[in-house]
Structures
1.
Amino acid sequence: MLRVVHYLNQFFGQIGGEDLAGTAPLSRDKPVGPGLALQAALGDQAQVVGTVICGDNYIAENTDKAVAELLELIEAFKPDLFFAGPAFNAGRYGPACGALCKAVRQRYGIPVITGMYPENPGAELYRTNMLCVRTGSSASGMREAISAMARLGLRLAAGETLSPLEDEGCLPTGVRRNIRMDKTGAMRAVEMLLARIGGTPIRTELPMPAFDVVPPAPAVADARTARIALVTEGGLVPKGNPDRLESSRASKCLRYDLTGVETLTEQAYQTVHGGYSGVFVNEDPNRLLPLDVFRDLVREGRVGSMPEYFYTTTGNGTWLEMSRKFGGEIAAELKADGVTGVILTST
Amino acid sequence: MKLERCIYRVRDARFGPTTDLADGVLTINKEELAARLNAEGFFTSVEISIARPGEAVRIIHVMDAVEPRAKPVGSPYPGALGPMVVAGQGMTHVLDGLAILQTGTRQGIQEGVIDMSGPGAEYGVFSRTINVVLQCAPPPDAPSLAFDQAIRTSGLLAAQYLAEAARDLTPDSVETFTVDPRDVDPALPRVVYICHLQSQGVLRDTFVYGENVRALLPTILHPNEVLDGAIVSSNYIIACQKNPTWLHANNPVVRELCARHGRELNFAGVIIANEHSTLREKSRSARFAAKLAAQAGASGVVMTQEGGGHADTDLMLCCAECEKLGMQTVMLINEIAGPQGDQPSLVDTTPWATAVVSTGNNDEIVDLPPMPCVLGGDTIDGVGPAAAGFKTALGRIYTATNQFGATAMSAREQ
């Protein structure tokens, strides 16, 4: 029998109304309020062994502290499956359900399910951390929401692959997991095309991601007074790759000293980037990081100065979050060094 | 154009005194095979092993896979092996269920792992083939160009040598390919397949009839040419997403379109286009490939990719051009959504890309158990001893997210 823990606010937890929204976390060793419907929907496959309750204001005003206290209460129940809410369109309850789902999943790695109205701020804030049933805006849809949450929870606990989330009545999570289909990719592609040509609606397996827009920085006004650094994602490293920079999916960016280095020779530098043919770079690494001409420009006074180092990483299958981290670190260090412009060579 | 693929099913392979095929068992004279594939003496040593499905074997440093094939006259991989003839005609002997796996390490080649059993064997194509594993050691100072040429040629020579064992036998079956757009009901929708190849420099090249396609203006091939060895890979990118020679010659999209030709669609040809290094070239290629598809009268296009990153741009540009010309387009693409699956899956997009088949997320982490026998080397860069268990991104597992759609792998929001 699966052990289930359910999170509720003070209202649904039958503590009281707005006047008791400051209630500190507490727990019950049985289903409460909507938990009774949840237990009924779970049937004999799972048992609501605990309910944890917290006031909306208490958790909204000090989320980290409240979540830590709630986790301590949850620990005692040893859950296999966790439910929160549903929170409908409640503006404090939704983010509270989300924050707790995230924390429970991080600690226990168990399925976490909630329910919200799509415009609840908690739905967007925590979407990658929970499975969220799409509900109406008010508690009148309680019974449907609870039964959908119970059904999904049992399927997740059984390790089932879900249908496209829209069909499951869930909000998008933005979290992609590998799955196995009944047909090969080639068959699915040809069938998708024939359906499109025949006018049958199709559903893409990969909705296009949305990207941040990075506005280009304004031009350096006068290069003669600028301090300009060299940075590359082309996998440039000292020969032999002493720090083991990866050829793809880089886990680090590195900084190498250029003191006394006038030009990058093939004896001293190489690329480890796995995403392009390194032949031309390895013949003359200045082709990747233009140190030779840059030294000339500084000598001729056409560029004010340059720091005596360069940054490098491998931009090959490197996921966005890692790139964002590298970029932030490099930019902060360069800024601290008075750098006003960067030549970033990409491959 | 008529191609007859004479299929000889191989249910086991072993070493023995004479290379021959009897009752589905391929016996290989190891010394003769080694001598044949190292005819010019380039390699300082050649090791050959056999790995079968279900065995406790891990193959590492996998570069390419080639299907053993021979023609009664001429080369099964024309241009790349022997002189140019137009592929796709006459008979071709195929040892079915067998793959030559070329292994090797060199800066710029990315690790390919194949487990023959256990959870790793759930991924990719070559855990289910009987594999003849080649480990050819180049001279230490060999330049990349010479290494690349020798590696490619040796795999093809091995393939031809083994399939010659079937030359005088009766095939288990014969597959006939005779796609001709003029022979079918003109009301059927005309479909073109745009197959993106990746050719961007040494060790990043794909060869068509023996030449790399770095400067290719997109061109059109008959499906039979693809299925009969016109395309050979020398592209050693992230292992999960490369298109080996074996899969070019068994291209699942081509096979699928051939199978439905004359019934549900009219297969009007395969357009090959290169994934280029610069935006100028990408734009040129995308527009020209779309133009060729329109010229072939297509109302629909299936499009595949090799690799990822800026190759996404080649596909997105080409998709947009096809759609603008009124051709409905479906693309097969894999994803780089990060280990948690919560990162953007692609590096470029277009609003026209409304019909995409996902072949899976390269970055998802898999847990490979220890494996007592390792072929192709001993250690994996960044991992350590290959016989130990380790966690790795799916990226290392050979053909795990193959973009020809060779497997049922996909990814979905969960």
2.
Amino acid sequence: MALLESTNIPSTLIKRGKSEKNDAASRLRMRESKEMVFKGIFLISSLLSVVVVILISAFIFKEGLPFFKSVSVPEFLFNTRWKPSSDNPSYGVLSFVLASAEVTLLSLIFALPISLLSAIYLSMYAKDRSANVIRSTVELLQGIPSVIYGILGIAIVVPVVRRLFGGNGYSLLSASIVLSIMIMPTIINVSESSIRAVGEDIKLGSIALGANDFQTITRVVLPSAFKGIMTSIILALGRAIGETTAVLLVFGNAPLFPKGLTSMGRTLTMNIVTDMSYAEGVHMNALFASSMLLFISILILNFIVVALTHKGRKR
Amino acid sequence: MKKDRSKLNRIENRIFMVLLRFSVILLLAIVIALLLYLVLRGLFKGANIKNGFNINLEFLTTLTNNGGKTGGILGIIINTFFLITLVVLIASPIGVASAVYLSIYAKEGRFREFVKSFIEVLSGIPSIIFGLFGMLLFVGVFNLGYSLISGVLTLVLMILPTIIVASENAITSVDKSLIEASIGLGATWSETTFKVVLKAARSGIISGIILALGRAMGETAALIYTVGSKTEIATSLTSSSRPLSMHIYLGINEGQSLDKAFALSLVLIVMVLIINSISKKLLKCGDKK
Amino acid sequence: MSLFEIKNLNVYYGAHHALKDVNMNIEANTITALIGPSGCGKSTFLRCLDRMNDLIPGVKVEGSVMFEGKDIYKDEDTLELRHRVGMVFQKANPFPMSIYDNVLYGVRLHYKLTKDEASRIVEESLKKASLWNEVKDRLKKSALGLSGGQQQRLCIARTLAVNPSVVLMDEPTSALDPISTRSIEDLMRELKKDYTIVIVTHNMAEAARISDRTAFFYIDERKRGFLVEEGATSEVFFSPKDKRTEDYIQGRFS
């Protein structure tokens, strides 16, 4: 970044003589060094994010990798027996992985229709005032902390599930319902922008051929917005997989293989949070190995999002 | 053979339109139901007016006793305030500085894309992993113990991406001609940043910081293994102390009544909503300029 | 009975009176050119014929537009109308799908087709649009890979595939190079045999070359568009009834 060299002294100051020229030069040098210092500070700040990600990976892997000295990867991933405190300890996380997968997928199934349809309504039909109301509502949903979602789940969702489906209410179904509400804002926001971005000209082309709204939307608009909608789904998946507190409060936290909608279960995140308070040694390493698994899954999802969004730009 | 679909088309379209409206109504209904219940049960025990108040002035203004089982929550609120203030003070300069580098100094190219992709990864990392990292680094390596400062530092890392992205947006929206004028007069880039850009982007940046604050206030997973759990007011950076969000979570674990949890949640959500609306208003103010 | 009989047509965009008191007939199997300066309502008029104006918020249409003896504004159903009256836009707007799917889009809205029927329709439509030879080996490739002129012909093929009676064209060649323009003009002359064409154009030479009838629109002091005169192209161009027409055609106005 070249600085403008202001070695020209304003005429009113020339009278001050030679000393003024020296002062001006030294002032300039000071400003230049200040510039270098600040540039350095800004640069280091931006690099901090990079450093943090690397550190997080390093620390998690450092605590998690040693685990695989005692337990093999398949034993870890494909075993449903999690009994770290027994005489013959076993560290199989399959039940948790499956529970996480089930609750995530189920919440997506619940959330997707409402979110997508609302996004379509928002971007194509809502008038200004109703659009604002809907958007504010979505923002509100987004701002509710997970612990409060958990509390509301306990008070509203769990009793209803208990009454309608039996069991004690703390279940896969309850967790999925709560989680689905939590991920709706993500899907709605990103999908809405993608649908908005679809060109007006092809919408007109479809209407001019006699298509009704349903046909135009399903055959032209949604396919065009597909990448964006997929991105929103993957972002929502990431959010759901990483959620801890809300599911902790409504899933029942039983380390069982989740058999049905009303069974209790424990996700990978719940397991980490629950056991960490008293784990030590191999047990603790196992929990960090679980964190590694979580971390890697998130990285993969991130990768997919990048691939999706960059492919579009190449055109 | 060809078959005319016009009747089918008409029915399809009708059903679709109904579904669209129904979805939006359902969405609004869910939100209203949740908030309404939250307010009702927060205010009245068992969400029933007849049962008397759940929250009262005394609750909000007296200190906690007895490990939080009795007494008011003033201490908790003060702890929350400490937490938030420290998080802002530490995270904002770093976040804004990063945004400055990325939008003013860095040229379009590999370095910029490289750093931005890391920021994106950072923003996707689940809070529990931040919590574990904080536990290992701050509580462990730096030996700060389960304390206010460990929690603060963990939260700082967590909300950094939010601040960076919001600041970047605000900075790139600044009218380029202002920047050109400053450089044209011989100012350095850092001088231009401080005297022109940050002033112009001020509302967007502050709005982003406040939004990030709102997120930090509701956080639990990142704090469980970092911030400690004492209910007294924190006396120093290294004291163990719990903010409101943790008080709710730990309360459930400690066997507190659900009514109490709702009272606490109501206070929390009101705080979060106030913060979010301040953030929105600031953003609007900035746009109008 | 004329194919289109337009009586006392007035169009308002909110408070703005865009088109005033248009009375005109359009006969079947003719090419009618709509000419006039910018903002005089030619496109507005065109869009009334297939009710695409309905999509503009705040639009009000008064008067009657009779198509095949029925007032199209009295009938709620616009889908059938747009099936019979197709439109080609100024900027080609192929869907982000294969050429094959683009052509069949409109047809599939209304009919279930067998594979044979589908291929036949695709071939016929592309041939009518003079595009078949250029794309017959890459029907399944994306339409977005075609050149501008090819895309526009694809849009024409897509419109023809539903077998409309009328094809409306809103400055179809203004975004194209001279060679593509000529090929589309040749196309229009061919199409006249089976279809009725109404085309908005800024290109006077084009209007003179291809149309049977010409309608000249102009704008009044209150910025309202109106029909000055309409007649056989040779008359409008060489012995116009109205001085304004004469001036415009002589090139005194833009």
